Amino acid sequence: MKDLCLRMGILFYSEDIAQYALVIGHQTDLTVGQYATDCKDRDQDWWVTEIQKSQAMVMLPRFFQYLVEENLLRLSQVNVLIFDHCQNVLDPDHPYDHITRRLESQSEAEESPRILGLTSCFTSNHCQDPVELITTIKQLEKRFHASAETSTLVYSERYGMRPTELVLECDRYEDQTGMVEELEVILENALQFLQECNITLDSNEDPIETPKTVIVECLNILYRLGPWCAVSLAQMFVSQLEKIDKHETNDVKKKFLRMAATQLRLLITHFENNFAPEYDIEELLMYTTPKVKKLVDHLRQFKPDCDFKIISSEDADGLDDDSYMSDDSLALTDSSDDDDRSGGSKIINVAVKKDIPEDKSGLQLFSGSDDKYLCGIVFVDHRYVAFALNKFIEEVCAWDDQLCFIKSHHITGQGSKKEGSKSYKKQEEILRKFRLQELNLLLATDVLEEGVDIPKCNLIVKFDPPKDYRSYSQSKGRARARESEYVILADKSNLKSFRTELAKYKDIEGVLKGIWKANDSENEMNCNNIVDLYHDILPPYKPGNEEGGVQVTLTSAIALVNSGQLGSLRNIATSQPRPQVEIAILRDCEGEVARKGRELTEVAR
Known about the structure:
The protein is α/β, with parallel strands linked by helices and 605 residues long. It has 20 helices and 14 strands. It has four domains: 7-119, P-loop containing nucleotide triphosphate hydrolases (Rossmann fold, 3-Layer(aba) Sandwich); 158-173 and 289-495, 3-Layer(aba) Sandwich (Rossmann fold); 174-279, no CATH class; 525-604, no CATH class.
């Protein structure tokens, strides 16, 4: 491409042009130009210069429309034209519509660019009806004179990794301890007091905003997860309020912060005075909701085939705390750094694995790296639910020898995304441990549904039912391990309406699968021919030189590099492999193509 000065037009409907251009320039050796809103006042001479020096132009659609309509760029000069959010071509007022109609008006003698349309609208709120989906796909195929393909579930379909789907019914929450009502009174009284306060500072700041937020969030967790989790969240909030108070200079705001902290301490004290289950797991579960109980019961099914014993910290002399407990809780804001283990037991319980042979004395600490059975994610729709639910699972695992194999943490993605920030480093550390299976269960918001490199999971749980097909398909796509499970926890009161939505999601999934299967069957012979051609260019590498043994081919090499230990090379800052592309136009027979391919392969080596 570089030698022939081929140009690629990439049109993004997003304002974040610089990020896309950076990625393309990083992954290729092309000269990439980026053209966002700051280019709107450029003259024609400037554009002509940019066209001449750029091999790939990443720009907003209206700029490309301008270049074409002013004849500054002929469509025959463009080899590849990529439309992001290509569904906008169906809008008569959108630049995509004008560009494609210009393409249609070209004469047959003129060379037209190859077109690639990208869209995620099929999995968004815009396309939730299967009939509408089929209609939209046919319209796009007609406008682009192309056939639609989908990457949704293609990987799992092609390799037979289809998770078993389960919908678990959860009963209505009926508090048997009386604690919910008592804690509710404390929080409601505090909230009512804050709502009756009508104070406005000179800076137009609302002094009750933060105190009101923490009270409301504790009430929400009380109703959704039960009193134990509400108190656990209250302990974290007390720590955060104290830190905010230290840095606050306004006296009025300080008083409200201290008032909220005092009410939360009252909540915590009242609960602790009435909470004494003496490490009885069934009593502990009484302080949570049926949905949480259902999750805990399902996690027991993943217990490895080995015996465990629970010992207290008094019996675990010399044990390293970091080896058996999850990390400190993830800061929910950049200013928070909660180092205490809120909601935990006074005496630390440790899960250890029994040594079976009689001649080996002592107990061996359980390590997640020894039994790599569970690798799961529990998706929730709220970051404080992830925090509190993780705290409860940690507590349950410290009490129940059927669950002590679980090493969990939570991740929400709500902190700063800057690589140097504390919250970013913590989240990266959590993901690193999950990839290495030092952690085997994550409680996460939808931040992990897409765009994050994680291992193949054998358990995905939607703690809150998916609200649209996008959430359903993306979370389900994380269950990529063989014999994996995709579990949805649904309240019995909303079960009928949810099953209606679930049936609609499956219809949409069937439409998208049908597209892939149709295209795959049509191109099956072509794919086989391509594989044979690769083998002709460069024969497979066989370490053992055995027939039917292990081999590495051109079609499997990239997958091997991107998996296992070799995948860690991608994290090395000095290792940034980029393809050096050479294009040669050959009009000879297939043998000449193969010969030229071997020459290029030798150069690449």
